[in-house]
Amino acid sequence: MSVASRSAEPLEPRGLQLLEAVGTWAGLALENARLHQNARRLAVLEERDRIGMDLHDGIIQSVYGVGLALENVTHTIDEEPMLAKTQINDAIGGSTRRFEISAPTYST
Question: pTM of the prediction?
Answer without folding.
Answer: 0.47
